[in-house]
Amino acid sequence: IAPSERRTIRELPDELVSQIAAGEVVERPASVVRELVDNALDAGSTQIGVRLVAGGVRAILIEDDGGGIEASELPLALKRHATSKIRSLDDLESVTTMGFRGEALAAIASVSELALVSRTPAAGHAQRLDARSGELSPAARAQGTTVEVRELFFSTPARRKFLKSDSTELAHCIEAVRRHALVRPMVGFAVWHEGKLVEQWRASDESQRIKDVLGEEFIDNSRPLEAEIGPIAIRGRVGLPAAARTRSDHQYVYVNGRYVRDRLIAHALRSAYEDVLHGQKQPAYVLFIEIDPARVDVNVHPTKIEVRFRDSGAIHQAVKRAVEDVLAPSGATAPGTGVV
Ligand code: ADP
Ligand code: MG
């Protein structure tokens, strides 16, 4: 290309824009599972099924019994920046749905073979939309939505090369469902791999779900936490220092129902355990933090795994003190109260 030509500014084609966006949102099959389960939850589903082939690389089918998508809106659901979840900046400030960016389906469709099958309560039958051809056809299913994602990264071999073995990708997919399952006890989840049921969590309550997901051993080796400080409410279970492990795989923090990895909260937890935990041991914990949505910005990262707090100091202090109170040797504080 001649230098003069190289400098021409061009608008990128839609498809390419989506593929670039997909780079941020869709890293591996588990990212697709996360986004699609988010959508199923936002649709008010009570049962969510995840069917995987080859660790999700060949196929990911997510079926729900939620509100469905109107046939006339199916093509819109696949469009970039098209969403039913927010209408204005004000809505963004108080958003309570998992999604709101209207990006996931467009991004996933740009790096896979995607089809939507959906039926609303009012519809006489389901409709199927094939993303690539844009073809709409009648289909059979009960109320709800099935999203079929096949051959992830088939058109971007460079990306596909970064994928690990099927069993590793499967483990990541299951972990993605587990993160949702912990915080949505009233929703039933099931995961199949190549036709075989590999994980199932039946609808229940919070304490039963924690037990179902993290096991009896975690319950035996942890204490309940419940604290309220000003506008911040924290509940969950924190692992006893004696039961800390070398792996950090039982560390779950949620802010307003959203799984997050937050450095501030991680730091608060580390300092709460500082005096009672030795060496490189990792404590286990599940924390559900509830805070006025206006005080936390979830629109920091496309995957929304990072958040930004308006009063980060208060959050840090609340988490640290709530956890310290539970971990305090009995006598110092009544176990389980953790009131700050
Ligand atoms: P977002 O979730 O940010 O709105 P998505 O690209 O994930 O963006 O989805 C686009 C739209 O498609 C959603 O706003 C929603 O209206 C619709 N949608 C997607 N998945 C489902 C589902 N499982 N059930 C009902 N509607 C869905
Ligand atoms: Mg979404």
From TrEMBL:
Annotated TM spans: none
GO cellular component: mismatch repair complex
Listed GO MF terms: ATP binding; ATP hydrolysis activity; ATP-dependent DNA damage sensor activity; endonuclease activity; mismatched DNA binding
Domain DNA mismatch repair protein S5: start-end pairs: 210-328
A Gene Ontology BP annotation from the UniProt entry: mismatch repair
Swiss-Prot/TrEMBL keywords: DNA damage, DNA repair, Endonuclease, Hydrolase, Nuclease
UniProt record similarity statement: Belongs to the DNA mismatch repair MutL/HexB family.
Protein purpose: This protein is involved in the repair of mismatches in DNA. It is required for dam-dependent methyl-directed DNA mismatch repair. May act as a 'molecular matchmaker', a protein that promotes the formation of a stable complex between two or more DNA-binding proteins in an ATP-dependent manner without itself being part of a final effector complex.
Name used for this protein in its record: DNA mismatch repair protein MutL
Portion of the full sequence shown: 5 to 344 of 654
